Amino acid sequence: MQNVRTVLAIGLFLPGAVWAQNVHIERQPCKMSDCFDFSRCSSSKKLYIHPMEKRFEEQPQSQIYTKILKHFQESDHYTDDPNEACIFLLGIDTTDRDIRSQNYVKNVPEYIDSLDPAVWNNGRNHLIFNFYHGTFPDYDDHNLNFDTGEAMIARASSSDKNFLKGFDISLPLFHENHPFQIESQLDEGHTKNEGSRKYLVSFKGKRYVYGIGSGTRNLVHHLHNGEDIVMVTTCKHNNDWQAYQDDRCQGDNNEYDRWEYDDLLSNSTFCLVPRGRRLGSFRFLETLRSGCIPVVISDSWVLPFSETIDWNSAVIVVAERDALSIPELLMSTSRRRVNELRESAREVYDRYLRSIQVISDHVLKIISKRIDDHFKQQHR
Amino acid sequence: MAIRLNGFRCPLSSLRVLAFLVIAIFMISSIIIYNSTFFEQSPSWSPQALTGRIENVDDYDASCSGYSVGRILREQKRILASVRSELVESQTKIEEIRAVQEELQRLIPQKQLELSALEGEIEAAQRHLEELREIQNVRVFLPYSPLQIKSSGATLLPRSSSLSFDSVIDYSLCSITSFMPVYVEAITNGDMEKEWSVAFRNVAPHLTEESDSACIKIRITNGVLPTESVSNEILFNIGESFGIADDLKSIVVQSSNLRSFDFALQVVRTTEKSEPVPLLPLYRENLIGLVIGSNHKMLDVSSLEESFKKANHNRIIQKCYQEKTECGPEITKRIYASSTFCIILESDDFLDNFMTSLEVGCVPVVLSNTQQLPFQGLIDWRRATYRLPIARLPEAHFIVRSFESSDILEMRRMGRVYYDSYFADRETIARSLLAALRHKLLIPTKETRSSLRNQAKPLFNSTFTPPKGTVVPVQPNYDDEYLLGPLESRVESTSFAYNFSEFQLYSYDTWNTIFSPHRSKEFIINSAEPPAESEFYEDTRSGFRPIEPGSGVEFSKALGGNRQREQFTVVLLTYERDTILAGALERLHQLPYLNKVVVVWNNIHREPPESWPSLHVPVEFVRVTENSLNNRFVPWDRIETEAVLSLDDDIDLFQQEFVLAFRVWRENRDRIVGFPARYHARYGDAMYYNSNHTCQMSMILTGAAFIHKNYLSAYTYQMPAVIREHVDSIKNCEDIAMNFLVSHLTRKPPIKTTSRWNLKCPTCTESLFKEDSHFDKRHECIRMFTKIYGYNPLRFSQFRADSILFKTKVPQNHQKCFKFA
After folding, report:
1. Cβ-based neighbour number of residue B243 at 10 Å
2. Using the beta-carbon criterion (under 8 Å), do A332 and B97 form an inter-chain contact?
3. Residues in chain B within 8 Å Cβ distance of A335
4. What is the mean pLDDT of residues B596-623?
C-alpha cells in the first residue's frame, strides 16, 4: 500500500510534456527475410554511418555510442559510400531513449527525416543501438519514441515479449568506462581449478524501497547469514528515499557498510544478479569479469547475445518466485558443476564481452552469420 | 530450473565381468541377509536402515558440493524462520491497517451525514439571509402628486406681511449699550400668567420697571389679543393661538398663525423637567408613530401601511379623525415614546407634538418644509430632525430605514439636548426667548468678570495674598543646557472680546455646540485663530511669541504655537494639609507661563497661617462658605486667564511636564489635558470606574489637568444642579462630573500627556483616596451621572501626547524639547 501511495505521489510530478513527446509507434513484426535487403550484402558486408549534423547536436554524444561508432569507423568494414554499404548506422545517438534522462536526444525524428530517403529506405538494413528504453514507473515501454521502421535494434534489457528473435540483437549493459579494447585473458594460463571461494553467494546493492524491481531485492535479506551467504542492501537511492523508508532501513544501511563490493565479487562463488528497474543490469558483466558465477533473477529477460551463447552452461537462471530457494539450490550444486560454470563464464566473457570493441564486433558477426545463412539457404 | 546431479556411466559388457557380477551379487545378498538376521529386524536396504547408519546428517554431502545435507537443511530452516517471522509481522501490520480501514469505513457514512447536514444548514442560512435582505429592502413608493394631498385647515404658511422685524422695533430704545432692558407685564390675569411673569423676571438679565424706556416689553396674554399694539412689544401668548392681522405691530410668540418675524414656541405645557429617556437602546417597539388629525383626513396612507406590512416593521398610525379612536396629548405622548421616528404633520398641534417628540426621544420627521420650528434661525434643527415635503410621505419609510444607527442615536441625542437647553421648563423657555431677541437685536449683556455668583472673597481679611511670604529657595529649574521658559510679566487673557461677533460669527457654536447663548461671553473656547505668518506683519504682530527655527533651545525661549501668547492660572483646592500645600506652592516657583496661583481654602472652620511661600506670581487665597469639592470648579473672578490648571495639593510633577501639558492644551483648548488617566469598564451588568493601568482611557482626573475657564462656568451654571448636589453629598466625583460634562459638550475624549501614572508626592500620606468606600462611590457616580444625562458621554482615547522629539535620536547640534517629556 505504501508503494502505491509513493508511486502515486511521484506520479503527480509527471509533466504533461512527457506524454506529448511519447510517440506510440507500433513496430512491425520483422524477420530477416521480410525486412532485410540481402542483395546489398551479396558482394561485401560494408558498413556505412550516416553523418551527424551540427544542427541536431543538442549535447555531446554519449561516450558509449561514440566509442562504438569510432570502432566501426576504424574497422575494415567501414565505407563512406552508402551505395556500397550493406549495413547502415545512424550518426545520432539513440542509446538512451528514456525521456526523463539527461542524455535523451530529442530530435531523432527530425534527423531521420533529414536523411536521404533512398538511403534511409524506411530503416531497411539499418542497425540501431539502444541501451535504455522506457521510463518511470515501469521502464517497460520498449518504444524508442521514433519510427525505427524496418531497422534492426541492438538493445539491452529487452523482454522476450518485445524482442524480435532472429532479427533484433540483445546487448549487455556496460559502463562507459568498460574497456574499449583489452587483450584476451584466457590464454594466460590461469589455474583451471580455483578452489572454493570464501562466500557461497553474495549481493550488495540498492533495495528500491518502492517501485518496480524492488520485489526480489526486498527479500534477499532473509538469505543473509553473515558468514557464507552475504546479502546486503541499502535503502539509499534517489534523493527522496528517506520519505519512503521502512523499519528495516536503518539496520540494513548499517549492515551494508560492513561489506566491500569488489571484495564480495572476487571472493564469492556465485553472485546474485537480480533485475533492477530494467531487466538488465551492469552487475551482469561485472560478476562475469570477476569470475563469479551469475545467478540471474530477471524473468523474461533476453540475455545478451542469446543467439550465439548458450547461457545455461555459464550462468544459473532462477525464476523470481523461486528466489528463496537459492541457498538450497546453490548448496546442492556439486563442486564439479561449479567449476564447469566458472570456466564457461570466464570463457564467454572473454570471447564476447570483454571490451566494447569485442561487443561491437560480435554484433556485426551475428548479422554476418545471418547473411551467410541466408545465402547458404538460397543456394540449396 | 535445471538441476544437474552426478550422472552414472554405463557399465562395460563382457563375459568376465558378468561372471564376476553374479558372484558379487550372491555375496552381497548373503551379507545383507546376514546383517538383517543378526542385527536388524527391518531389511537393511530400507530407508530407516540407511539413515540409521549415518550417525550424523552433517556428514552426508549428497551432491558433492561441499555442503552437507544437514547444513542445507539448517540453512533452509533458518530462511524459513526468517520468512515466517516477516510473514507474522506483515500479518500484524495488515491487521492494524485493516482495523484502521474499518474504523474509517465506519466513519464515512457518519461523516457523510454530517456533511449533508452542514450543507443543509448552509442552504437554510442562505435562504434566511435572502429573506432578511428582502425585509430590509424596503420598497420605494412614488411620492404623492399634488392633487393627492388633501389637507384642509388653515394654511400655516408664515404669512408674508408688509411688516418686518426691523419695522416693529424701535431701535432708539435698544442701543447696543443698553443691555436690553426688559419690562414684564401680564395683560390677562391668571395663575399661569403669574408664573410666567415670575419666570421672566427671574431670568431677564436687565429688568426694568419703566415700560417706556424698555427695549423689550413682554406682555403675557392668555389667548387675548390686546386692542392697541405698541412697538417693541412681545406678545407672549400662553393660550390658544389667535389670528393676527397683518399690520399688528407686536411680535407674537405662540404656536401657530405666525408671520415670518414672529416666534414659534409651544408654551402651553407642563413645566416639570422630566428625567431624560435613556438614549440606548436604539430601537423601540415601533419604527414610526404617526398621529393624523382631522385636518388631514383625506391623506392617503395606504402605501405607507403596505410598505410596512411588507417589511414586517411595526408602526402606529393613529387616525384621530375616526370615531372611537383614542386621541389626546397623553395618547400622543405614549405613541411617540414607543416609536423611533415620529412623523409630524402640519396642524394646530404641530409644535406641541414636536416638543413631545423631542422630550420622549423620538426623532421628529417633519412633513413640512414651511412649518416654522422654534428659533429655527439660531438652532440648527437639521441635527435633530428630518424635514420632508408631505408629498414624500410614501417614501418616508424608505428614507428613515436608510439611516445608520449611529446617526439615529445622534439625532435623538441632539433633540434631547436642545430640549433640555432651551425648552425644558418655563424659566428655560423665557431665557431662550430673551437670548434669541438679544441675538436679533445684537445687544450684549452687562458683564464683568466678577458677578454675584463668582466673586471671590479674600481669605486674609481684605487681601487675597498672605501677609507674610517666605522666600522659596530658588531651585534651578533648568538643565545646564537651557531654560524651561521665559519668566515674562503677567498678562491676562483678553476677555469679553466677542460681544458682537458672538451674535453672528460664533452664533452657530453658541446655540448648537455650547448651548449657552444667554450671556455675553468672557472667553470663547475655539475662537478663530490668526493665520500663520501673522506674527511677521506689523498690524497683526502683537502678542505673538514665535519660536525661532531650531530645536530644544529655541523651543524653550518662546511659547510659539498658533495663537498669541497667554498664561495659565493654577487653582489649588486645599483641606487640612497645610504643609503639603506649602510644598506644592514651592514647587510652582519660577514656573514659566504661570499667571497666578489661586488657593481655594476649604478649611472653613479655621483661619489660615499667615506665612506662605512667596512665588514669582501672586498666590491668592479665596474664602468659601462651604467645604465643597465643587469650589474648585467655580469660575472665580480672580482667574484672569483662559487656561486653568486644576491641581490637587499633593501633586508632584516636574515643571517641564506642566509646560508640556500647557502647550498641548493650547492646541486643544476644548479638551481636558492632563496626567492621571482613568477609564470606565463594564463588568457583568454594570459600569464601573477603573484606575488600573490601561491602554484605553476615557477620563483625565482634574487633580492635575488643564481646563478652559469656560468649563468652570459650565460646571457651575449649566450642568444639572443635581450632579453638584451629589458631589457635595458624597464628597467625591467632582472630577468624574467634569469629565462627563466636557465629553458631553465636545463629544471628544480628554488628552493624556507624559508617561506619569502615579503623581502623588512620596511623602504625602493623607488623602480621600485611601478610604475603602472611595471606589464604591465612584462606581455609583458613573452610573448616576449616566442616568442624569440619559447616556454615557465619555469617549475613549488610545494615545498620549509627548513632545515631538521625545524618545527621538537627535543629531549633535540639536536638543530635545524637554528633558523628561
Report:
1. 9
2. no
3. 64-66
4. 92
The structural domains of chain B, with segments of one domain joined by +, span 165-264, 286-424, 451-472+566-801
- Identify the band that residue B118 occupies on the pLDDT scale cut at 50, 70 and 90: very high
Q: What is the pLDDT of residue B475?
A: 59
- Touching check for A326 and chain B: CB below 8 Å? no
CB-count burial class (<10 Å; 0-12, 13-18, 19+) for B44: middle
Which CATH superfamily is B451-472+566-801 part of? Spore Coat Polysaccharide Biosynthesis Protein SpsA; Chain A (3.90.550.10)
- Look-up of cell digits 569479469: A289
A283 domain residue, yes or no: yes
Distance CA B87, CA B92 (A): 9
pLDDT for residue B12 is more than 70: no
- Tens digit of pLDDT for each residue in A329-360? 999 998 899 999 999 999 999 999 999 999 99
- State whether A235 and A366 are in the same domain: no
Would the pLDDT of B813 be above 90?
no
pLDDT attached to residue B668: 95
> Scanning every residue of chain B, which has its alpha carbon at the shortest distance from the alpha carbon of A318?
B1
Residue A151 contacts B, CB cutoff 8 Å = no
State residue A152 phi and psi, 5-degree precision. -85, 145
List, in sequence order, every residue forming a beta bridge with A271; answer none if it has no partner.
Answer: A202, A294
In which band, very low, low, confident or very high, does the pLDDT at B700 lie, cut at 50, 70 and 90? very high
Nearest to A368 by CA among A161, A77, A112: A77
Identify whether residues A165 and A286 lie together within a single domain.
no
Question: Residue A329 has what pLDDT?
Answer: 92
pLDDT higher than 80, residue B38: no
ipTM of the complex: 0.75
Lowest mean pLDDT among B95-99, B430-434, B814-818: B814-818
pLDDT at res. A176: 85
User: Which residues does A150 contact at the CB level (< 8 Å), separation at least 6?
Assistant: A28, A30, A34, A35, A36, A121, A122, A123, A124, A126
Q: Same structural domain for residues A224 and A129?
A: no
- A324 at interface of B, judged by CB pairs closer than 8 A: yes
Q: Residues with Cβ < 8 Å from A138, sequence gap 6 or more?
A: A212
Decide if B735 is catalytic. yes
Question: Of residues B352, B420, B648, B735, which has the active-site annotation?
Answer: B735
**A364 and A220 part of one domain:** no
Whether B257 has a pLDDT exceeding 90, the answer reads no
The CATH number of the structural domain formed by B286-424 is: 3.40.50.2000
Contact (CB, 8 A) for A211 and A7: yes
Return the axis-axis angle of helices B191-203 and B426-441, rounded to nearest 10°.
50
Contact B366, B386 (CB under 8 A): yes
> Residue A1: inside a domain, yes or no?
no
The span from the CA of B763 to the CA of B461, in Å, is 32
- Residue B61 scores a pLDDT above 60: yes
Minimum-distance CB partner of A334 among B1, B64, B82: B64
State whether A39 and A173 are in the same domain: yes
Q: Is the dihedral of CA B75, B81, B87, B89 positive or negative?
A: negative
The pTM for the full model equals 0.61
Of B4, B76, B78, the CB nearest to A337: B4
Residues of B in contact with A228 (CB under 8 A): none
Mean pLDDT across A132-148: 86
Domain count, chain A: 2
Percent of chain B with pLDDT over 70: 89
**Shortest CA gap A221–chain B (Å):** 9
Indicate if A140 and A210 belong to the same structural domain: no
> Is residue A176 in a domain?
yes
- Statement: residue B246 has pLDDT above 80: no
* Residue A61 belongs to domain spanning: 6-180+357-378
CATH number, domain with residue A333:
3.40.50
Same domain, A297 and A205: yes
User: Do A154 and A173 share a structural domain?
Assistant: yes
